[in-house]
Amino acid sequence: MRKLFNSKKFCRLIIAIILIYTIITCISQSQKLQSYNNQKNYYASQIEDLEEEKQDLEEEQKDVNSSEYIEEQAREKLDMYYPNERVYISN
Q1: Alpha-carbon gap, residue 6 to 84, rounded angstroms
Q2: Are 42 and 48 contacting, i.e. CB atoms less than 8 angstroms apart?
Q3: pLDDT of residue 6
Q4: What is the three-class DSSP state of 37?
């Protein structure tokens, strides 16, 4: 038994096992890191899109009480027009 622990083959086996474990762990960690970077990029792009949308909504909020905005919304969404106004639809 003592001879087994002192042999060079046993030491090489232990070193090989440790080396293989280290390589597998590094590969696994690298894949996780890549996955986290992909998620980070995805969420960063979502944040950017939402910030643009927020900016658009803030600009729209400033104009909500203007008569031009109210008229535009009445025409586009409610199909309302002034009395005696003729509406032409072009194709």
Answers
A1: 106
A2: no
A3: 67
A4: helix
Find, among 71, 66, 90, 68, the residue nearest to 81 by Cα: 71
Amino acid at 89: I
> Residue 78: is it exposed, middle or buried by C-beta count within 10 angstroms (0-12/13-18/19+)?
exposed
Distance CA 36, CA 53 (A): 26
Residue with the two structure tokens 């440790």: 18
- Please answer whether residues 69 and 63 qualify as being in contact, where contact means their C-beta atoms are separated by less than 8 angstroms: yes
Query: For residue 11, which of 64, 3, 79, 21 has the smallest C-alpha distance?
Result: 3
Task: State in Å, rounded, how far the first CA of the chain is from the last one.
Answer: 95
Q: Which burial class, exposed, middle or buried, applies to 68 when counting CB atoms under 10 A from its CB (0-12, 13-18, 19+)?
A: exposed
4 — pLDDT class (breaks 50, 70, 90): low
